[in-house]
Design a protein that fits this description.
single chain, 225 residues, mainly alpha, 9 helices, 65% helix, globular, binds zinc ion
């Protein structure tokens, strides 16, 4: 398999399939299940923002092939293992367990930086147009945020631990599923309630619940802006 197939076409197709497939699944909920179980404030779905979001995400993701292309020499510099044999090993499993922990730290810190007054307006305000988000809004960000926050959250962990390439693909799928579900906006998903409280109240719930409790940024009904 050539480098373009391995490092560009395959991950591009996989991530697009997972992002749009799962967003499509949640769209069915938004069409046929809402307002039942929607997080309060999100019962009425703004369909014109929904359409705007779909177009914006498509436009943003159209730059992904360039990013993946630029990353090829970086993966090679790290000497990443591209063998299928290396996938099924305790080492890959251990590294796969480390990826979400590292990603939480990268996301929490970069997200807090996005909320600094100096960056908020031009970098992060777009993502907060959704107060109670829908799944598709997971990647509704400015280009700067996509480049400086979202991509590092995905790419830094596998680069740091130098995981087997197919292990990295599993990580990309798991991370995409997690971020899309967090934006679904339904009360039966605890992680979505946690992240929606960030969209609603801004200065709380920047990342995963354990990092928010460590950083004392967990939202509770007593803490209001
Ligand atoms: Zn969000
Ligand atoms: Zn935010």
């Amino acid at each position: 398999m050539g480098d373009l197939q391995t490092f560009l076409i395959n991950p591009l197709l996989t991530s697009a399939l997972v992002y749009w497939g799962l967003s499509g699944f949640w769209l069915l909920f938004d069409l046929f299940w809402a307002p039942k179980d929607r997080i309060p404030g999100g019962e009425i779905i703004d369909w014109s923002l929904y359409r705007k979001t779909a177009l914006h995400v498509l436009k943003l993701q159209s730059t992904t092939p360039i990013v993946l292309y630029v990353m090829i020499p970086v993966w090679k510099y790290r000497g990443i293992d591209t063998s299928w044999d290396g996938l099924v090993s305790l080492e890959t499993l251990f590294k796969l367990l480390l990826c979400p922990l590292l990603s939480d730290v990268v996301f929490y810190l970069s997200h807090r930086i996005c909320h600094l007054k100096v960056f908020y307006k031009h970098v992060h305000k777009k993502h907060h147009e959704w107060v109670v988000p829908c799944a598709l809004a997971a990647a509704y960000t400015s280009f700067y945020e996509y480049l400086l926050c979202n991509l590092p959250t995905f790419l830094v962990p596998p680069l740091l631990v130098n995981i087997n390439w197919y292990g990295a693909q599993i990580w990309f799928v798991l991370a995409t599923v997690s971020i899309v579900n967090d934006h679904s906006g339904y009360t039966f998903l605890k992680s979505s309630v946690h992240h929606t409280n960030h969209h609603k109240y801004q200065n709380y719930n920047y990342g995963s619940s354990h990092l928010d409790s460590l950083g004392q940024t967990t939202w509770s009904p007593k803490k209001r802006n």
